[in-house]
Amino acid sequence: MILVPITYRGGIYRNNEIVDLIEDIGGYIVQKHVIASEVVLLCFMPQDDVEILRAAAKPLGGEVTDSPLVGTEIAVVIPSLEIHHLPHPACDIAEYLRRLGAKSNMVGLARGVGKRIAALNDEERDVINEHDLAVYVLGNFEKCIEHKMPVLRRGIEAPIVLCGAPDTEALQRCCDPPVDGYIGNVGRFMHRTKETEEITKLDEIVSEITRVLEKKRISIAKDPLSVSPARLMDLIREQVPEIHTVTSPTPLTVQMSGLRVKLPYDSFAEKIRSIGIEDGITIRDVADLSPSRMRDYILVRIRPFSETNVVV
User: Fold this and answer.
1) Lowest mean pLDDT among 97-101, 111-115, 283-287, 293-297
2) How far apart are the C-alpha atoms of 98 and 135, rounded to whole Å?
3) Angle at which helices 196-222 and 88-99 cross, to 10°
4) Regarding the domain delimited by 73-220, which CATH topology (the fold level of the hierarchy) does it fall under?
5) Is 104 helix (H, G, I), strand (E, B) or coil?
6) Is the pLDDT score of 293 beyond 60?
7) Nearest to 75 by CA among 156, 168, 184
8) Cα separation, 122 vs 117, whole angstroms
9) 258 pLDDT tier (thresholds 50, 70, 90)
10) 277, 232, 285, 240: which is closest to 258 by C-alpha?
């Protein structure tokens, strides 16, 4: 069964019927937002059953759209958190990704300032690698990007999409070895992205991220995961009641090949490992749990079929 990411938007009236339908046909709700009288559901649905949901949503005035960023966690990497390197483009990119279903985190580097001292420390490298993709939002000068990019990408295994003020061709020339995606003409400016051409540029960034993530999905599909991350999310939500007391956004953050559980590792890792999935198979049989470098969270990495010979 192939699960595809979608978004449902509709009124709060009878939204429980939509929730029940999604769960009854084997879908998973990743996030639910109630905004005034509107409900937004970020979901994974069986590909063959999406039209069933569309038909059920139509009489209720609901809308079902494809959302390729649902179920991904993206790092937006900037040279520093100071005003010189954190004007509105980086913030707006992170917010725009959230609106389209991704979980985005801002990563401000401790020593990303200046060509002479630019560096990436071990903690920053590990945090970025915990994400499905990293968006590097660099500055206005081609020579600066050319000089700093080799050290700011050192040890990064997650796919990288590079944004900067030079045009796309210039970014490709100055980045050796190449990264996975490029978006040019995104420089630093001290105002919100409100103009039409600026919103269009955000759409270009999303399109490039979607293209890179689709390549990663194809790679994962060649050696499928032993269990769906969305299914693990539901199991943990049902069997670890403490997750419902977490006040952080998205206590269970679904990723393309795992998930982040926002509970202390020492207290809950063994309990999560012991959760049964099906026919005596537990999470420890199909996934590796490790402490995240982001606070004291738990990082779950699902092993592929080639390592476990199991798909549940």
Assistant:
1) 111-115
2) 14
3) 60
4) Rossmann fold (3.40.50)
5) strand
6) yes
7) 156
8) 15
9) very high
10) 232
How many CB atoms lie under 10 A from the CB of residue 132?
24
Q: Is 127 left (phi over 0), alpha (psi -120 to 50) or beta?
A: alpha
DSSP 8-class letter at 303? P
- Encoding tokens for residue 232? 């693990």
Pairing of strands 287-291, 252-254: unpaired
Distance CA 278, CA 237 (A): 16
Do 31 and 250 meet the contact criterion of CB atoms below 8 Å apart? yes
pLDDT at residue 84, as a whole number = 63
Q: Give me the pLDDT at residue 33, please.
A: 87
β-bridge partners, 290: 299
Q: Determine the Cα–Cα distance for residues 51 and 120; give it in Å rounded to an integer.
A: 46
45 vs 28: CA distance, rounded Å: 7
Phi, psi of 177 (to 5 degrees): -70, 165
Taking CA atoms, 284 is separated from 2, 243, 255, 288, 302, in Å, by 24, 19, 18, 7, 9
Q: Would you list the domain boundaries of the chain?
A: 3-66, 73-220, 229-308
Position 2 confidence tier, pLDDT thresholds 50, 70, 90: confident
What is the phi/psi pair of residue 195, to 5°? Answer: -75, 160
Q: What token pair was written down for 165?
A: 């003020």
Residue type, 231: R
* Separation between Cα atoms, residue 252 and residue 176, nearest integer Å: 36
pTM exceeds 0.70 = yes
Q: What percent of the chain has pLDDT over 70?
A: 97
CA atoms within 13 A on the CB side of 195: 6
- Of 3.40.50.300, 3.30.1640.10, 3.20.20.370, 3.30.70.260, which CATH number belongs to 3-66? 3.30.70.260
Lowest-pLDDT range of 105-119, 168-182, 241-255: 105-119
